[in-house]
Design goal:
It contains three helices and seven strands. It is of the alpha+beta class and about 170 residues long. The chain folds into two domains: about 70 residues, no CATH class; about 90 residues, OB fold (Dihydrolipoamide Acetyltransferase, E2P). A five-stranded mixed β-barrel has the order 3-4-5-7-6. β4 and β5 form a beta hairpin.
Length: about 170
């Protein structure tokens, strides 16, 4: 709203008496005209920017999908153990006895205790004798339900009586 329009409005208001309803209508009309302005369509680059943004998103999703489906192993099957770990039907892990010096034997079951461990060994003597297990080296899931011997490193726990990071497992 320019100065000319403001002066014209002032003159019109002082010369023509308006009812309160007309005053409100005039105020609303003036406010609508100043607030609702036509956006300039001079910027023709907006569709190009939207197209580039969509292209970037599609490339990101596509590369993520491609990388997630890649296999890591010479045979084409994904590996389920750390590099350097040996895996067979009855044994898996790294034979590093200096790092993984603790050992325990029992029936391997799924589930930890209150967020500690992913599996546990059931041993004679009840729940207090269970060893809760996690592994940064091997997949313990393929040995569930079997009697096994594990070698690992004891780590601190809040809930578990004995929590072990397993480095090697052998079915007995």
């Amino acid at each position: 709203m320019g100065i000319k329009d403001a002066i014209l409005d002032f003159v019109m208001e002082t010369t023509t008496p308006q009812t309160p309803v007309q005053q409100v209508q005039t105020a609303v009309t003036n406010a609508t005209q100043t607030v609702l302005k036509q956006l300039p369509l001079k910027d023709r680059k907006l569709p190009m920017y939207i197209g580039i943004a969509l292209l970037v998103v599609l490339l990101g999703v596509g590369s993520g999908w491609f990388l997630s489906n890649r296999t890591s192993g010479a045979s084409g099957s994904p590996t389920k153990s750390a590099p350097g770990a040996k895996t067979s039907a009855t044994e898996a892990g790294i034979g590093d006895e200096k790092t993984f010096k603790d050992t325990a034997t029992g029936d391997l079951q799924e589930g930890g205790i209150n967020g500690e461990g992913t599996h546990h060994l059931v041993r004679p003597g009840g729940d207090t004798q269970n060893v809760y297990l996690t592994s940064t080296v091997i997949d313990l899931g393929s040995f569930v339900g079997k009697k096994v011997q594990v070698w690992g490193q004891t780590i601190s726990a809040q809930q578990a009586g004995w929590l072990m990071d397993v480095g090697k497992i052998k079915a007995i």
